[in-house]
Amino acid sequence: MIGGAFGPKMAGLGGRAGAGVNLPDGPGLQRLLDVVRTARSVRSSASPPDFVVTVSTSINRRALERLRSLGVDRAVAFI
Which of 6, 20, 36, 70 could pair with 2 in a Cys bridge, judged by C-beta atoms 3.0 to 4.6 Å apart? Predict the structure, then answer.
């Protein structure tokens, strides 16, 4: 299950219980990524190695480069 997380509570849940998480792009993205990574580290022994982080974002070179630098696996675009 890949869950959508718009705040820290759901980001933590996604990091602990999901196979991945989708986060919204924007000024709070780094904080949400930190919450997910912290939650993942708590359950690292039980974590699947293929955990996926996706971000809903605009598709342009600058946005994609930024997401890549943050360690995001996939960008999701609504068309």
Answer: 20
SS3 category, 1: coil
Q: What is the pLDDT of residue 72?
A: 95
Per-run averaged pLDDT (10 residues), the chain, 79 residues: 92 90 95 94 66 92 94 90
Q: Would the pTM count as exceeding 0.70?
A: yes
In single-letter form, the type of residue at position 14 comes to G
Give the CA distances from residue 75 to residues 42, 43, 59, 65, in Å, rounded to whole numbers and listed in that order. 26, 25, 8, 11
Full DSSP string of 22-71: EEE-STTHHHHHHHHHHHHHHTGGG--TT-EEEEE---SHHHHHHHHHTT
Give the separation between CA 3 and CA 61, rounded to whole angstroms: 26
